[in-house]
Write a structure and sequence with these properties.
alpha+beta, five-stranded antiparallel sheet, about 15% helix, 5 strands
Length: about 70
């Protein structure tokens, strides 16, 4: 999923922040937030690369972080 697709999804759901996973084998996610309709990395304060394919996201199930792919 590309950055603009994630931005559109977040806008449609009214989300301001999320934790995304860039590569399938990354153990950690990246905290991102929507500012002015653009997705920014919370920690570096830079825009998320628009060309990179974002693998998935992190959500919590029963208090534990779980990684979920966008394409299933």
């Amino acid at each position: 999923m590309k950055r603009n697709e994630v931005e559109a999804f977040m806008k449609s759901k009214g989300m301001k922040s999320w934790t995304i996973v860039i590569n399938e084998h990354d153990p950690l996610g990246i905290g991102v937030e929507l500012r002015g309709g653009i997705l920014y990395d919370i920690y570096t304060d830079h825009r998320v690369d628009r060309k990179v394919n974002i693998w998935g996201y992190i959500a919590y199930k029963e208090g534990k972080p779980m990684r979920f792919p966008f394409a299933q």
